[in-house]
Amino acid sequence: MLKARKKITKKEIKKDPFLESLYSIKTYIDHNKQKIIQISIGVILAVVVIIFLNNKRITQSEAAETALGEALVNLTIGDIDNGLLMLELLVDDYSGSRSAQRGLYFLGKNYYEKKDYLTAKSYLNDFLDDPSDDFHASAFMILAEIEKNDLNTESAIDYYKKAIKYATTDLQKIQLQINLTKYYLEAGYINDAKSMLEVISKPLNQPIKVQNEIDEIIGRIDRAISDEQ
Question: How many angstroms separate the CA atoms of 221 and 185, rounded?
Answer without folding.
Answer: 7
